Amino acid sequence: MISARNGWSPRSLPGSFPRRSSGWRAVAAIGAGALPALAFPAPALWWFAYVALVPWMLLLRSAPTGRRAALEGWLGGAGFIVAVHHWLLPSLHVFLVLIAVLLGVLWIPWALLVRELFGGRPTAGRAAAGLVLVPAGWLLSELVRSWQGLGGPWGLLGASQWQVPPALRLASVGGVWLVSLLVVAVNCALVLLIAVPGARIPAVAGLAGFAMLTGAVWLWAVRPEVSGRLRVAVVQPGLIPDGPDSAERRFAAGERLTRTLVGQRPDLVVWGESSVGADLTARPDLARRLAALSAQVGAPLLVNVDARGPDRPGIHKSSVLVGPEGPTGPRYDKMRLVPFGEYVPARSLLGWATSVGRAAGEDRMRGRAPVIMHLPGGVRVGPLVCFESAFPDMSRRLTLDGASLLVAQSSTSTFQHSWAPEQHASLAALRAAEDGRPMVHATLTGISVVHGPSGERIGPALPTSASTAHVYEVPLATGTTLYVRFGDWAVHAAVAALAAYCAARVALALRKPAPEPSSPPARTARG
Q1: CA-CA distance, 451 to 474, in Å (whole number)?
Q2: For a pLDDT cut of 90, what percent of the chain falls above it?
């Protein structure tokens, strides 16, 4: 019998390692997965995104088994979700950890790709394939978790580059998805340079290719042509303490600040999300006050109603344009709701979340279709509500429908002293660059910002400490970006590359000859 006395033990198996090492690797995976959060606002270390994945990938490529790499990919993914969304802890409590554990599974295929293509001593060909397939695997995890039911596209790695002009130009070609691919690819090249001496040629060639691609896009990508200007006023009332009359006090604050715009000749005044706490049909007195404000200022008001209507069931969050004669044109009802914040998924099973955190006590109702609103001068406005500014497809749809100006009405007052306001505000730059249309991000409590059609900042950002109204000279633009024209082609290309790789692996496995059966033992005569 073979025993430990004869020199055998589980630790002596190839690829095995002590339990103490296993524990430290698990902790390291969680920490390494959390590192990319530093590239997002509030730290906003955008340059860090290009190296942030290196520690995690070095850990994964050294995993002794595929099972271990899968576990460390899972743990790192969970660490990333918690780090990027840590400001949700006061609202979700233990649910944030459970969600992170669930979504962390999405990084398992990526982790296996890292180990498969970069582990050991990869050939130059395998390393070059990894520069394409590993970023594609990362993008697949981003794509799946971007489904609204899983929380939506918040914290996409490419979104960390919202203030980098070359990255914004890339977004105009392939959306935030193309930026994510490039950021992960640079991390892959650095891993090869650090850990695989034999693959330095493809790594350097890859970095040179990424630089050439960015330069070509900067020089030749279609740029929006400025075709005029629109004076847009953003009204940010600031934090109003909760109370039975908080909706009325918020309305009064917006009313007071809007009056300060008299004489400044705005073309549009934008209020934030939930700026009106009663349905205007049920409260004609509020509708009359808004109409009077519009007449005084000389511009329509885009307000946001968060209320139960008398003529339809449930509570909607609706963008409503109000002119001197009252509400005008179609209203837009928010279509994509925040999980737990505005509805509880599978409420019959998870309804107890309302007793643990700040989950929605009643599910909001969903809108059915996007809406284009028309200003008196002919400018078309595409409204979005809060969370919806994270979805590239929604602003692209509005642009295709003819929107000249994108407007997101938002409120992050629940997370006032966290990273959330800055993370949310940064999304406006990406949507503007993707679609070649200016975007106004108007909030109740900050941060309110305006970005031009190339994603550039227009005027000052209104901080969370401000209670003010500010007029912005917003450049309008014509033309169509490649992203608007061709959509999520970068995603399709990544999925196609992964599918081709999987098909090649299957074909190779099928071509391998089956092992020959061993010949039966020879019989011997017994005397």
Answers
A1: 8
A2: 73
Using alpha carbons, list the distances in angstroms from residue 61 to 27, 122, 244, 462.
16, 11, 57, 45
Judged by DSSP in three states, 280 sits in: coil
For CA atoms 410, 368, 394, 234, the dihedral sign is negative
Contact assessment for residue 280 and residue 306, using Cβ atoms and an 8 Å cutoff: no
3-class secondary structure, 281: coil
CB 184 within 8 A of CB 118: no
**Residue that has been written with the tokens 């082609």 in this structure:** 489
Q: What is the pLDDT of residue 6?
A: 37
DSSP 8-state secondary structure symbol assigned to residue 408 = E
Structure tokens at 208: 């040179």
Cα–Cα distance measured from residue 221 to residue 218, given in angstroms and rounded to the nearest whole number: 6
Residue 237, H or E segment: none
Q: What is the DSSP string of 440-473?
A: EEEESSS-BEEE-TTS-B-S--B-TT--EEEEEE
User: Identity (one letter) of the amino acid at 463?
Assistant: P
CA-closest candidate to residue 407, choices 375, 377, 376: 375
Burial of 419 by CB count in 10 Å (0-12 exposed, 13-18 middle, 19+ buried)?
A: buried
Q: Two tokens at 10?
A: 């589980």
Looking at the DSSP assignment, which residues form a beta bridge with residue 146?
A: none
Residue 165 vs residues 156, 385, 422: alpha-carbon distances, Å = 18, 26, 18
Q: Given pLDDT bands bounded at 50, 70 and 90, which one contains residue 520?
A: low
**476: β partners:** 228
Q: How far apart are CA 138 and CA 116, in angstroms?
A: 14
Identify the DSSP state of 197. G
Token pair of 490, please? 């970068």
As given in the structure block, the two tokens for residue 28 are 């390291």
Cα dist from 76 to 143, 310, 346, 498, whole Å: 17, 48, 27, 21
Strands 405-410 and 380-385: parallel
Q: Cα(413)–Cα(415) distance, rounded to whole angstroms? A: 5
Closest CA to 227 of 14, 76, 452: 452
Largest interatomic CA distance in the chain: 121
Position with higher pLDDT, 448 vs 223: 448
Q: How confident is the model at residue 346 (pLDDT cuts 50, 70, 90)?
A: low
